[in-house]
Amino acid sequence: MKSNVIRTRLWDVSFSISNYFLLSLITFACIYPFYYIFIYSLSDPIAAGGGLVFWPKGLNFDNYRRLLELPNISSSFVVSVLRTVIGTILTVFCCTLFAYIVTKRELPFRKFIYRFVVITLYLNAGLIPWYLTMKSLGLKNNFLLYVIPGAIVGFYVILIKTFIEQLPAALEESAMIDGAGYFTIFIKIIFFLSLPIIATIAVFAAVTQWNTWQDNFFLVSDPKLQTVQMVLYNYLNQVQSIANMTIQELNRGEAARQITPQAVRMTMTMIVTIPILFVYPFLQRYFVKGLMLGAVKG
Amino acid sequence: MFNKPMLTKSRLNLLLMAVPFLVLVFLFNYLPLFGWVYAFFDYKPGIPLSQTEFVGLKFFTLTFHDGGEMLNVLKNTLAMSFLGIVTTPLPLIFAILLSEVKNGKFKKFVQTTTTLPNFISWFIVFSLFFSIFSVEGLLNTILMKLHIISEPTNILGNREAVWYVQTAVSVWKGIGWGAIIYLAAIAGIDQELYDAAKVDGAGRFQMIMNVTVPGLMPTYIVLLLLGISNMLSNGFDQYFVFHNPLVAEKIEVLDYYVYRIGIATNDYAYATAIGISKTAVSITLLFTVNFISKKIRGESII
What we know:
Strand content of chain B: under 5%
CATH architecture of the largest domain in chain A: Orthogonal Bundle
Radius of gyration of chain B: 26 Å
Oligomer: heterodimer
Radius of gyration of chain A: 25 Å
CATH class of chain B: Mainly Alpha
Number of helices of chain B: 14
Number of helices of chain A: 15
Structural class of chain A: mainly alpha
Structural class of chain B: mainly alpha
Order of helices and strands of chain B: HHHHHHHHHHHHHH
Number of strands of chain B: 0
Order of helices and strands of chain A: HHHHHHHHHHHHHHH
Distance between the termini of chain A: 50 Å
Low-confidence stretches of chain B: 1-5
CATH superfamily of chain B: MetI-like
Strand content of chain A: under 5%
Largest interface: A-B, 84 and 81 residues
Number of domains of chain A: 2
Mean pLDDT of chain B: 86
Largest sheet of chain A: none
CATH architecture of chain B: Orthogonal Bundle
Distance between the termini of chain B: 44 Å
């Protein structure tokens, strides 16, 4: 009996140790590539070319300073921030208001209207029809292409509707008696009561906006409307003449510290990743909770 | 009597509020569906559709006659989807291992860091992998310095390995995110089941096998079935960013093929026809899988 207990105990401890080891390994694999790019972007490009593993070589912010001075990078950053902010606000507002309208039993054709939107989860016309439709709607080389098509997302509508339905009805009814209209009730009551789910949707929408590049790639050639993702793509594909021009421009007149294509690539990658890292704590806090709220009925 | 007109007016208001959103949904989700007509015409960009010839199902049958190209694309698509399905237990195993950790801080740290790759764009994923696995990348630099290899190996340009490399990339990006749903399911397992198992003298491993794993099975089966129904749509982004001439033949999946045919060679009609066929197969698979789920579990998944 006793030896059995000891054996179980031994097994437990060795399981724990190997488990911690394995999980640490997976964590390392997930986080190290980001760290590597980070230290590379902070290193002297020539020294970094010789190899880095854990610490930057010749620590400095030159790569960032010089890259951010470039007009196409700073303008793409502005475009990406604008599409993220405007797109997120629009998506959150439209999806929440629409979800609220659909929860109202007195809405005519309520079932049909809700299904009309939910079915879009399974609808996909394909690349070419999408491309031609956007073009014919005049969204080619148009900033609105970034923000309008994503204003209503079926999945978000389901999540918000489920949330609103489980709010106490009493608050709304009392406002109704006071003669407030639907829109007033939405702005003054529903919106604030729904803040937990709205936070979830907002971080999701923001990350999607920041990461999306297909609309830019297929339909926007105007250099003033390029997003950071597309600029990063141009650096990843050195064939693009813009990328080569930039590197020449960066090196002009500064013989002392040459910048290399790798350094430009790494630094640009960091510039695109940093905003995600910035909202990540919020993502962490809200997404699990938010998803579980929705999954109850989903 | 007095209330009735008021009521209709407010109901009408409500409907009017919904209309702008319905218009948006129609424009961006339903209108593109009308673009499917292009598949039935010999459409060339620049010429209005009314002046082009109606060719019926020509482009649909072309799918079967375009030499080995389509066959190769289907082979790549199915091979990588199959490898993807083979790796579906990994997030489940990862979630179980994570739930066995007693230290809350470590657990949270692991969960936070492993979900991060899910939230970055494919360009960043490519940039990260490129900086480590390319010819001039970190791995080759280290291996050369340690004299383990004398010539750098091009992992991202290895034709034979590309299916496995892409599967590994998908696992890297998705494992943490995929584990979240299982962690939630584990939290939902009745604690009494564990207590009962303990009374019966079950060890840690036996509890995992006899309580946790069966508790996760319903969730796993749903995700597995959805994965099977998505077999033809392994996405465009990943294969687009990792595409290079060395691996082109082995990495080209259906979604990429539609892009190449449609945008790169401007063959709108054929690309649309492939897209429609793909959607038709996917929907059939989805309903089949849903039917199977209903039969076996008495629950539908969509």
